[in-house]
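Figure 6 in text form: structure in, sequence out.
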């Protein structure tokens, strides 16, 4: 282990050069123009797997962007760890708000800025380098490893579910490990044991059959933008609760134990609101901020459009208005059921003056891993060794829809060992990965592979 750790220490500059190459590929999964870059990125991942000594490497087609597979299975009698991550990234707009170009990784103040640096290329690279360090110094790994790095996580992993079903044997393992979440705070390592689910919807409203002069027609027909905002404004009550009938019916209650544990975490609403530049926080009454973020469902309008939005003024009563609305879900809400409730409710409250269509764009279920799971306990031990500090337990508000599918299709629990930070600007301009977390992450991952067999044996 000492040899492996000193190898990690002496190769830091090379790691950064390599990671910069990975980050230079604009693998934006939602953008059809970036399809060649997605292919190039999948090849980069495959070459990397080859270089670090994985075997049976395969760029595997899915119904969409390819998933890259690699394995090393020469530790008989030892557990098999399935490491999942994603090489696709979110779009970079608005480009003018980036301090340095999003695909030219740049270091400032100990942070590496680039799209995908934290979410998730940097965290995937952490595992490449930890595996490589073992292979280069010991000639072997302390466990069996399978890796699946996909290209559609940021667009809902639609094709990965059938992929898991079709490749059950190939992916057979003892446990899944994902590094695609954040630590609690700078210098505060944590193990994440829960993620929220998601139901992502679009509402389209049609008013008159064409755009109208707002002077000649205003006062005679319902403006679809007005109708849409009237609908959206009814979706929360004055206590910040969502008004869709049945929405909370299957929400799992927070236990007293969890509430007490959250209350003890080093958190300040004041620091949080100051950092975000808001005078006051908002949310469901009766729950603390961490409870609302991690264990309560929410509904957000992600975008709204219609009518004239150009420079200057145009007097128009538009024919159409639309909105994208997503709901973050918690155990035991079902994404499909919630989508149906949403559609029914919107249709019920939509005024007769407009025609409404509701579409379900994508979704996924919330996930919880019990904290006494030996794989989680191995993560606690590895983080303590990698960062020199005992980690906290936390949940997160984001979603990784495939986690629940790993359980359903492959019967596997997932350990979430994340090295991002809550203020890393994921999905936004100036995304960054903190370099202490990156190198600490490589050390932690190297320890994790080593610790896992002992912990699983104690099961
Ligand atoms: N890395 C995130 C998931 C995440 C975000 C975990 C924040 C913990 C905290 C992942 O890449 C992501 O952004 N997922 C999407 C899923 C969606 C597209 C189905 C999300 O949460 O919006
Ligand atoms: Zn991610």
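Output sequence:
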């Amino acid at each position: 282990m000492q040899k492996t750790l000193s190898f990690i220490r002496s190769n830091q500059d090379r790691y950064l050069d390599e990671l910069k190459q990975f980050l230079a590929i604009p693998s934006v999964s939602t953008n059809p123009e970036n399809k060649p870059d997605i292919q190039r990125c999948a090849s980069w991942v495959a070459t990397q797997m080859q270089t670090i000594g994985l075997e049976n490497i395969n760029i595997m087609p899915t119904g969409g962007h390819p998933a890259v597979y690699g394995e090393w299975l020469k530790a008989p009698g030892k557990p098999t760890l399935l490491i999942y991550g994603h090489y696709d990234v979110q779009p970079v707009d608005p480009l003018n708000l980036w301090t340095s170009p999003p695909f030219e990784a740049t270091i400032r103040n100990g942070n590496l800025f680039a799209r995908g640096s934290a979410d998730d290329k940097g965290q995937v690279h952490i595992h490449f380098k930890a595996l490589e360090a073992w292979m280069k110094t010991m000639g072997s790994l302390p466990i069996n490893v399978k890796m699946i790095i996909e290209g559609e996580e940021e667009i809902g992993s639609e094709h990965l579910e059938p992929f898991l079903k079709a490749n059950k044997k190939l992916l057979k393992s003892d446990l899944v490990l994902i590094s695609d979440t954040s630590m609690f705070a700078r210098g505060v390592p944590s193990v994440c044991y829960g993620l929220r689910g998601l139901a992502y919807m679009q509402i389209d409203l049609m008013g008159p059959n064409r755009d109208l002069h707002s002077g000649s027609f205003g006062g005679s027909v319902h403006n679809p933008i007005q109708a849409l905002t009237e609908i959206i404004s009814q979706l929360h009550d004055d206590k910040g609760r969502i008004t869709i009938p049945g929405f909370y019916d299957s929400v799992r209650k927070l236990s007293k134990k969890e509430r007490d544990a959250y209350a003890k975490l080093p958190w300040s609403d004041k620091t949080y609101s100051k950092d975000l530049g808001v005078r006051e926080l908002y949310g469901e009454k009766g729950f603390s901020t961490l409870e609302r973020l991690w264990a309560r469902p929410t509904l957000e309008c992600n975008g709204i459009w219609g009518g004239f939005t150009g420079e200057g003024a145009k007097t128009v009563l538009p024919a159409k208005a639309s909105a994208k609305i997503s709901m973050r879900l918690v155990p035991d809400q079902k994404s499909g059921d919630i989508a149906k409730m949403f559609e029914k409710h919107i249709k019920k409250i939509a005024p007769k003056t407009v025609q409404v269509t509701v579409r379900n764009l994508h979704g996924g279920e919330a996930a919880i891993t019990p904290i006494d799971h030996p794989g989680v306990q191995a993560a606690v031990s590895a983080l303590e060794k990698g960062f020199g500090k005992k980690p906290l337990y936390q949940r997160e508000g984001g979603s990784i829809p495939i986690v629940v599918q790993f359980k359903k299709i492959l019967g596997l629990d997932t350990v979430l060992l994340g090295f991002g930070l809550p203020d890393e600007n994921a999905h936004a301009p100036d995304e960054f990965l903190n370099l202490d977390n990156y190198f600490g992450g490589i050390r932690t991952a190297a320890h994790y592979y080593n610790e896992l067999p002992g912990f699983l044996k104690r099961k």
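Caption detail: The chain has a mean pLDDT of 97.
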